[in-house]
Amino acid sequence: MVKAQRGKMKAQTLLALTLGCTMLLSACSGGNGNNASNGNTNASGSTGGEAASGEQVTLKVEVFDRGNSPAGSTITNNYLTKYVQDNFGTPNNIKVEFVPVPRSEEVQKLNVLMASGSDVPDIVFTYDSGTFYRYAQQGGLTDLSELLDQYGSNLKTFLGDDTLAYGQYEGQQFALPAKRAHLGKYSSFIRQDWLDKLGLPVPQTTDELYTTLKAFKEKDPGQTGGKVIPLGMSLAPAQFEPLLWSFIQPVTEEQRYTLTQQLGSNDYPILLPGFKDGLQFMNKLYNEGLMSTDFSLDEDKKKLNEDAAKGLVGFFSEDDMNPFYPDGLYATLQKNIPDAKLSAVDVYTDSEGKHPKPEYAPVGLYLMIPKSSKNAEAAVKYLDWMASGDNLLAIQNGVEGENYTLENGIPMAKADATDEIKNRIYNWGDMAIISNGKQLGETEKNVESYVVNMPEQFQDETRKALSVSRSDTIKPVLFDRPIEAQAKYGTALRDKLNEIVVKTTMVKPDQFESAYESMIKDYMAAGGQAILDERIKAYEEMKK
């Protein structure tokens, strides 16, 4: 039936339907990925073999087009595309051709390219794990396992097993995930000047935080005229996740795999023991006037940031170093209140005395080679070249002495560099596709590269916030296959989670129990049970 329909479709109708998984079948035909060069990359950048000495290979690589190219450059013709051609392409008799894809239309455009078969680039990528799994399921991707062993030794070492695992589907390596430079996610912040004014120590536990919040409310050290918000809250994950995860009890591996609910890209402890206790603590804070009263309307953190910048908020959680960006929350707070001091703290404490909080998965982009590619070897060699020597350093930072200087192994951008020199690497993030963030060989250096690019007066607290975000972290749960029910129900259930948090927090304490039971029952009926059942089955099969 599908083939009959396909035969009658006009070209424009075909394009409109490329979002359907069945269209991926056209990407599977032809090409076995073995028509490119042979041999590993040597120190000079040459891979050797046929591509270096025989017919030139054209390697097509996807690149995000953000419409931000400076005058004199385009996204397919700029300093870094020339660097790639001169240092990888030409020595290996490979013409590297970049295929632009609008960043805002990433998945839609990629689906069109994949459906075209012959026109699809040799290297494509997506941030969306569901898109990667769909291509893998439909047989649209090259199995990279042997190619990686033969031609990707530097790449394998760079990515590591933890990152590579995210590109596997049922034991086969169908994607090469870009490696995140920093896995920390959340930190918390407190008004140190308020603590100093009240003569209070920095709270070290959840109980001590509760005592501190009460003091903020009763004594109003910021002299807000009764507008004080002891704990700033919004409906964004950065605010409520650190609190809720700190109430989760120790669990077995099986409980962690089966009871966790992944909605979108985040794991949530909705069915884990202790989740209810976390909600009850939020209910207590809200009913005692210790928390933002209008948090339920603030999904984008806009109101929270406004309140904190005005000097009304005593404590809040946030994405690791967000408050310290130039012209960010802290800078605005100090313009409004010059004596204000914001300190990074790690307060929420679990039953074992730890400060648990989720961390990011170690993956950025999913780099894939379509099954129809005839240049899979050259594609792997290109990515391996990027992971070799100083190539990634050069792509991400430019020319030493012109774009940057090295201080203790950290590239420091030269403030006196001309715009022309700075613009060399305007698109480094989209060219250094094997990495999400700057990679300097070790985590501490990676983190420090973030710190030194913050305003000098905020660097110490930025460093502390990044340290907090990486302590006692909870790794994402990874199965060897997609959980279909999560893709099917995830969006709707994410809204249900917000409803659970809002309603159980805002009801009167004597109504909490009934509200919680009702909301969880509704959540499970709306797809939560289907996810639980599928995760149980997937875990059992994975452990066989």
Annotation keywords:
single chain, 3 domains, D-Maltodextrin-Binding Protein, domain 2, 4-stranded mixed beta sheet, 43% helix, disordered N terminus, 544 residues, 23 helices, alpha/beta
What CATH architecture of the largest domain do you see? Answer: 3-Layer(aba) Sandwich
CATH superfamily (homologous) name of the largest domain: Periplasmic binding protein-like II
Q: Pairing-aware structural class of the strands and helices?
A: alpha/beta
CATH hierarchy, class of the largest domain: Alpha Beta
Low-confidence stretches: 1-44
Gross morphology: globular
Hey, roughly how much beta strand do the residues contain?
Answer: 5-15%
Return the CATH topology of the largest domain. Answer: D-Maltodextrin-Binding Protein, domain 2
Assembly of the depicted chains = single chain
**How large is the radius of gyration?**
26 Å
Question: What percent of the residues sit in helical stretches (DSSP H or I)?
Answer: 40-55%
Helix count equals 23
**Main beta-sheet strand count, sense and barrel state:** 4 strands, mixed
* Average predicted confidence as pLDDT: 90
Calculate the terminal CA-CA distance, rounded to whole Å: 37 Å
Number of strands: 18
Summarize the structure in words.
- A hairpin with a 2-residue loop joins strand 4 and strand 5 (172-173).
- Helix 7 crosses helix 8 and helix 13 runs parallel beside helix 22.
- The protein has 544 residues and is an alpha/beta fold.
- Residues 1-44 have low confidence and may be disordered.
- The chain has three domains: 30-182 and 364-388, 3-Layer(aba) Sandwich (D-Maltodextrin-Binding Protein, domain 2), CATH 3.40.190; 186-358 and 475-542, Periplasmic binding protein-like II (D-Maltodextrin-Binding Protein, domain 2, 3-Layer(aba) Sandwich), CATH 3.40.190.10; 394-456, no CATH class.
- A four-stranded mixed beta sheet has the order 3-14-6-17. A four-stranded mixed beta sheet has the order 8-11-7-12. Strands 1-2 form a two-stranded parallel sheet.
